[in-house]
Amino acid sequence: MENTPSRHDAADSPSGLSFTDSSLRLPDTLKLPSADKVVTIHFRTEEPPVEPTEKPLLQKPRTSRMFSPMSKAPNQTLIARQLNLAPGTVSRALRQQPGIKSETRERVLKLAQKLGYTVRTRGKAAVEADACYLGVLVQSPESSWTHTRYLVGLSEAAAAMNVTLIVHHVSFQDCLNIVHADRQPPAMRDGRVKGLCLVHRWPEDVARQLSEKFACVSVVHFYPGAKVDLVDMDHRGGMNVLAQHLYGLGHRKIGYFGYCGDMSWSRARYAGYVEAMTKLRLELNPAWAIEFGPEVFEQRLVPPTAPEEALRLIKSGVRAWMATNEWAGQMLAQIVLDAGLRVPEDVSITGFDNTDTVPRPVVQLTSVGVSLSVIGTAAIQRLNHRLANPDEPRQNILFDVEFVLGNSTGPLI
Fold first, then answer.
1. 141/172 Cα distance (integer angstroms)
2. Is the peptide bond before 344 cis (omega within 30 degrees of 0)?
3. Most buried in the list 19, 176, 218, 255, measured by CB within 10 Å?
4. Does 72-124 carry CATH code 1.10.10.60?
5. Within 13 Å, how many C-alpha atoms sit on residue 135's CB side?
6. What average pLDDT is seen over the chain?
7. How far, in whole angstroms, is CA 274 from its chain's centroid?
């Protein structure tokens, strides 16, 4: 018979020892001889409880790596991991903020819907903190903005992208000071403005300094040496179209009215004029190009020598003229009419950018142009893309122009 006592008194033990005596180390089993068999006794030793000498330190509970799909932050983290995106990118995409590629936003929203994730409604302060502001800096000596249709496109695009526009007009005399914080709009000064759209010509050094602090896009004006994207129209292509039109009417001596080396758009249009004359194998005479200073365009002045130069060249046989813009074209038409000549019977004149607002036009210029609202929309879209891709090389976006037939061109008689 097998005995397995767990506790005995000393008198009951064959050896006179207590099995619970902690001073004696017992083997696991003990075999005792008997008359007819060997009895095996199994021992179960019990260590006495050890009283702690001091109160144990509180342990910080371990954070579980498991999380609920309904928890906001972990769920965004999960989306970011699965799509290999930065958590900040996922957060902006879920809140429909700008600065995110459309395909990236679509991927985020699709996965969020699949996971059952819902963006929580946030308080007013949080919404204002995340709001995106874009600045529109307009440099003009006039108190009014002549190209208001830029603003139409800018505003429509901004509303579609949940962006707030801050339009700030700066006079030509004060434009150098925009780089100083105390002369900037408050939202630009305190860092809420993330990007700038530059309208009209700014000093190149000012554009460069602004581009070092903000994402920048320029409308029509090109700034070499500055990281400023350009949204513009195809000046060279437009001049080729107009030159071909005059050539088809029989004109072989074609002058250029209003060249300005300080204006990037005027340089580009003059380059188109030179290219067209070369392509059509017409005489290219630098003396047939009447030059203006930048103040003529910015302050809408009439150069004192322009009427005399133009009339002298017209009498010498230059009967067709390509003006650098609508305003210059209207100025030339007025000079011709004041001299008792006719447009287009005696002189044919073309303009450029038929959207330019000219008060009291004297003729309807044959011209080319592109919708200013389209350019404005593209400028905001490009600025949004630049915010999402700050390291991309500078890019120029050019829109094709449309030919507009007026009553200012006719066949050579």
1. 5
2. yes
3. 218
4. no
5. 27
6. 81
7. 34
Helices 326-338 + 306-315 axis angle, to 10: 70
Sign of the torsion formed by the C-alpha atoms of 306, 311, 312 and 318? positive
CATH number of 131-233: 3.40.50.2300
228 phi and psi, to 5 degrees? Answer: -125, 115
Q: Which CATH architecture has domain 235-370?
A: 3-Layer(aba) Sandwich (3.40)
User: Residue 236, SS3?
Assistant: helix
Say if pTM beats, i.e. exceeds, 0.85: no
Q: Are 257 and 288 in contact (CB under 8 A)?
A: no
**Within 10 Å of residue 38's Cβ, how many Cβ atoms?**
8
Nearest-angstrom CA–CA distance, 12 and 147: 114
Q: pLDDT tens, 60-117?
A: 444 433 334 444 444 688 888 889 988 878 877 777 665 667 788 888 888 887 777 7
pLDDT tens digits, one per residue of 272-322: 999 999 999 999 999 999 999 998 888 888 999 999 999 999 999 999 999
